[in-house]
Amino acid sequence: MTQYMVWRPAYSVGSASIDNQHKQIIQIINDLHEAMGEGDESAALRPLVERLLAYTDMHFEFEEQVMEECGYPDLEYHRHQHDELRHRTEDLQRYLGLVTGPDLFYFLREWWLDHIQEVDRRYSAYLKAAVLP
Length: 133
Ligand SMILES: [Fe+2]
Ligand SMILES: [Fe+2]
Known about the structure:
Number of helices: 5
CATH class: Mainly Alpha
Number of domains: 1
Bound molecules: fe (ii) ion
Radius of gyration: 15 Å
Number of strands: 0
Shape: globular
Largest sheet: none
Oligomer: single chain
Structural class: mainly alpha
């Protein structure tokens, strides 16, 4: 089955740990997308949205801690972006029955691809000096 989202080497931020977390998030969104196609929508989707939310939280905390340790100068902006997505993902969870599949997936895919390629990429140069696999 064709994957809805595919992680590409071009998305790498220069850290295997963070790249793996991004791959996990993409995988959860793919699982959500697959569940959506199987009918019985909100019953199947709810645990996956919860998983996405929990994983997103863990990933943001991890990234923010790494940026802090690296002395990344634009941490506040980055943190703000994370907070915004966290709130929007919480809204998705809260209003899951009201959102339509295409909206949900378009939003998730666009936001994550944009964030990984634009916003996360900016800390890349700072990570290289830090001790991170
Ligand atoms: Fe990230
Ligand atoms: Fe980020």
